[in-house]
Amino acid sequence: MSGGLGAEAVQRRTLLVVLVLNAALFVGLGVGGLLADSSALLANAVDNGSDAAVYLIGFLAVGRAMIWKTRAAWLSGIMLLIFAAGVLADVARRWIVGTDPVGWTMMGLAVVAAVVNLICLMLIRRQDSDDVNMRAAETFSFNDFASNGGILVAGGLVMALNQAWPDLLVGLIVAAIALKGGLDILKDARGVANKGQAQ
């Protein structure tokens, strides 16, 4: 019993740390994305903001009944799908009205965000938990880390080619990653719910 309580305490602490880190990235990448006029950075900022909200939900669900955890995971997946739709709308808007992203700002912030997301991923994987919300958290952190790599490449291409399309392309890719992540989380939550009903 005490071992379970200890594991829950560690899980809460881990979720709280990654929540704070993602909230900080939301602010930093958001400001940087506005200053750099970068769709990819803004997409990553909104992604981290939705992640922080989801980590808060997961934090509140720790130690509660499985139905709580399953509903939290469902909400996580739905938020990712909403985020993906928002990014697609922003990319379309920027494609129509035009954009002039700053490559070096994109690259610098992508490196910082990649380091932070790698720390989050390592903290979550250290839990070695089968909890549906911890698996969702791992999906978020891995997606963010992959997105940071894409932004780094896009920033380099923006500088080399002096064109905006690499930034818009990565914005689309970030949306696609979020879409897949959201669907995976919903599938995982459905599987956990069905398993619970079967028992």
UniProtKB/TrEMBL annotation:
Keyword Membrane: yes
Species for this entry: Brevundimonas diminuta
GO molecular function: zinc ion transmembrane transporter activity
PANTHER family reported in the protein's UniProt record: CATION EFFLUX PROTEIN/ ZINC TRANSPORTER, RE54080P-RELATED
Membrane-spanning ranges: 15-36, 48-67, 74-96, 102-124, 145-162, 168-186
Annotated membrane topology: Multi-pass membrane protein
One GO CC term, this protein: plasma membrane
One of the Pfam families matching this protein, by short name: Cation_efflux
Subcellular location: Membrane
Residue ranges occupied by any Cation efflux protein transmembrane domain in the UniProt entry: 15-189
UniProt KW keywords: Ion transport, Membrane, Transmembrane, Transmembrane helix, Transport, Zinc, Zinc transport
Descriptive protein name: Cation transporter
